[in-house]
């Protein structure tokens, strides 16, 4: 089968012919429906080397940590899964037995230093291939919802969902406001999650007019950049400030904007990994305003997000690429020429949702 492989540090990935894997006990073989291309893949193959990251990310492996697909085969001991059904893949894979993993938060595995990889597509073979193996525990049911558009939910959806869940106590009740800075793939999903899970007024800002228009159609009040940006946002809160700010960029000016508009006892979550430094001292932020970062999310949260998607609350903007054109997806991503997420589709002719014709009971637990 074909797979997009990361083979050496500071080297672009390449399409290679590899053996189709077999599921180990406790795993399933997934026929990949869609695999999202993510900016952190670019960091992996362009920026990192053994001096900057741990051995878990060392090449070689197949990229793709935002994947959805159909069950093709089940490994020994796997119960209750049916061939042809569509699932989303929770990427992180921790030790499975520490306190963090036991609550489905493999991202913060206490034994991460000893694990052989971080996630499917980050150290372990991921979804930029015709097939991949996945621990059955990491599968999230998609029902009849389209698995191709669902793929980015595994990271571009779960990351904002987790950040919003952690800020929900700031947004409960009437008269609250949230601000989304940066309306790429993650920011567009954040607007929709905020609309679906809170009664807050959602304010959104971005440099691209078409991204602002899309967020406006999804119920956000949009504010453009420029000198009066912070004042305009404060006005929209009645002068109180924003209860929860989500910065999907993470540059110095965007974090400074967040500091200017956050309310007393509000919360700023920096989600974007641009790494901009900012000054913090006792007087720089309003009283008791929190400033924090965040990383990916939990298995349980991905179940919740997938339910919102199945129920029609979340649309994911995707541009499809064949596996043969997967490198072009990354070129567009690097140039920033896509609105939404690039998704590689290895089986373009497969029916999107599971139907009775493709459902086929397979021997379970053997
Ligand atoms: Zn990612
Ligand atoms: Zn663990």
Automatic annotation (TrEMBL):
Pfam families: ADH_N, ADH_zinc_N. Residues 2-344 form the Enoyl reductase (ER) domain. Belongs to the zinc-containing alcohol dehydrogenase family. Gene3D superfamilies: Medium-chain alcohol dehydrogenases, catalytic domain (3.90.180.10), NAD(P)-binding Rossmann-like Domain (3.40.50.720). Keywords: Metal-binding, Oxidoreductase, Zinc. The keyword Metal-binding applies. One of its GO terms (molecular function) is zinc ion binding. This is NAD(P)-dependent alcohol dehydrogenase. Its cofactor is Zn(2+). It comes from the Bacteria. It comes from Demequina lignilytica.
């Amino acid at each position: 089968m074909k797979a997009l492989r990361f083979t050496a540090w500071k080297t672009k990935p390449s399409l290679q012919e590899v053996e189709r894997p077999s599921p180990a006990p406790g795993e399933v073989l997934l026929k990949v429906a869609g695999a999202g291309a993510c900016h952190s893949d670019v960091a992996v193959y362009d920026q990192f080397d053994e001096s900057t990251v741990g051995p878990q990310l060392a090449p070689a492996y197949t990229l793709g940590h935002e994947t959805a697909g159909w069950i093709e085969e089940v490994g020994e001991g796997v119960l209750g899964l049916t061939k042809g059904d569509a699932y989303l893949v929770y990427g992180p894979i921790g030790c499975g037995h520490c306190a963090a993993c036991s609550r489905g938060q493999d991202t913060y595995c206490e034994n991460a230093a000893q694990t052989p990889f971080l996630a499917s597509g980050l150290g372990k073979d991921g979804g930029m291939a015709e097939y991949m193996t996945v621990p059955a525990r990491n599968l999230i049911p998609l029902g009849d919802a389209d698995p191709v558009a669902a793929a980015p939910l595994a990271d571009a959806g779960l990351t904002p969902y987790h950040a919003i869940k952690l800020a929900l106590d700031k947004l409960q009740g009437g008269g609250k406001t949230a601000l989304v800075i940066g309306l790429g793939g993650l920011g567009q999903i954040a607007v929709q999650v905020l609309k679906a899970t809170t009664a807050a007024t959602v304010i959104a800002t971005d440099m691209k007019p078409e991204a602002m228009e899309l967020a406006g159609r999804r119920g956000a009040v949009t504010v453009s950049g420029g000198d009066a940006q912070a004042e305009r946002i404060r006005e929209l809160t009645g002068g109180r400030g924003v209860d929860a700010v989500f910065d999907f960029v993470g540059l110095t000016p965007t974090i400074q904007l967040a500091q200017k508009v956050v309310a007393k006892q509000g919360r700023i979550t920096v989600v974007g990994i641009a790494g901009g430094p900012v000054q913090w001292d006792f007087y720089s932020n309003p009283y008791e305003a929190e400033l924090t970062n965040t990383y990916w999310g939990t298995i349980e949260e991905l179940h919740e997000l997938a339910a919102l998607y199945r129920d029609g609350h979340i649309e994911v903007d995707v541009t499809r690429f064949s596996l043969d054109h997967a490198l072009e997806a990354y070129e567009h991503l690097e140039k920033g020429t896509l609105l939404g997420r690039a998704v590689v589709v290895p089986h373009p002719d497969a029916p999107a949702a599971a139907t009775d014709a493709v459902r086929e009971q397979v021997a379970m637990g053997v």
